[in-house]
Amino acid sequence: MSNNIKRNKIIAASVVMAMCLCSCFVMLDNDGSDAASDPSYGTISEFNLAPGFRWTYTPTYPSDLSVSTSILKQGTNTSSGTSSNITTGSWATISGSTVTVTVPSNASVGTVYDIILKATTSTGGVSQTAYQYIRANITSGLTASGTASDVILGSSATVSLSASSSMGSVAWSVTSGKTLPAGLSLSGSSVTGTPITVGANIIYLTASAKGQSVNVTIPFTVYNVIKGGSAETLKSYGTTVSSTAVSQTGSDLGVTWSVTSGTLPSGFSLSSSTGVVSGSSAVKQSTVVTITGTSHNGPAQTATKQITIQSEPKLTSITGDDTILTYSGNGNVTETYASSVTGTSTLTWSLVGAPSGVSIDNTGKVTVTGSAAVTAGTNFTVKATSQYGQSITKSVRLTVEGVLDLSGADSVSTTAGTAKTSAYSATGGSGNTFSIVDNNAPSGVTVSINSSTGQLSMNGSAPAGSFTVGVKVTSAAGQTDTITVTCQILSVLVYTSTPSNGVIAYAV
Length: 508
Known about the structure:
CATH class of the largest domain: Mainly Beta
Strand order of the largest sheet: 1-2-8-7-4
């Protein structure tokens, strides 16, 4: 063999090797291992492609060769084996040297589609052929889903998004024409926030990857909050009373209420649907109960409310005088007041509008000192308040008398058989009455006085020596003043002698 022939054979072998090296590429299987090999057409180059997607490939060759590319064989491979299992197919087309693989949108996931390319050249009079084995594994492409938990108003939402694509990274967006529920926002692949709309809410999102998109609808419900409310005290005095309805803010919760601490007293009941405690009693008692509302819809939640129930007999009136009468400097005057109803809770006594010098103790005793700051009638109120919130009042009039002063003659004289009067009067005091005291009149002498007018009368049928009586005035408050009157009943002026023979004087 000549040297030229040997040289041509070496060149031809080198060209074939270069074509094979340039036209074949290796991809990894899904498990990361090298692709399988077909003894007839070399190593299989695999890639993933989703239904509805298109893949293009333009092989390259050594620049000194003029190469023609064609599809030798294509179709589904029934067992993902060698080229002998390729059936008829038409997903791949070639234009020039560019191969386009279009997967029908209804292609079954898991399908294996094989394409064998054939490259031929006759450059420099040397004919060469090379093959490239290409495999498209039909995968599911983009999948996306999402869930959101129901929430209680005021709580943050928990939204879980899941997406995968064999065609690349997935991007999330709010579906065109939709908005997120108020209070929520989308950032990357996370929806966060606190929804504010009670009731049904829907999140509309779109997951996109390599031109493929999937709309995801995520419903959830926002439920109202059970509100037990502030502690409340019910006071019953034999009349029906009710607590305020708890503000569970809606029927969406399906709340029921029950007593969870303490016991409702006789005469009271709880509405399980409204949480209202109502009833009546006149028995002295104080009871504390706790009611708890439990939701039956949405996330589990409870709320409590404390209710104190106090009952007792009804207070009706206060016993005791309507008036208190005293006088300045009289010291302490007292009057005790009490409730006409027994069996109530502890009473607290107080005065309303009382002048200085008037006080009341915890037994209802009113004390007026001698320096009470009134000189004329004034009204004040005695008030009794029970421990359980009842109160009754009584109006009392207080009168402080002025200083009692008696005036009139301190001596009275008359003649036997002639009545004598003398007028006495008093200033200060009130409701003053007059009387005779320390009457030293002798037998047969009468001394009296009109109790209301102070008119003194004295009469005696026979002369009497000097004697004394006391004229006394007494006020309604008990003041007194007395004048000691010296009295005389004189003889009637008469001649006690008659003319008789006596010395006769003769005229000279």
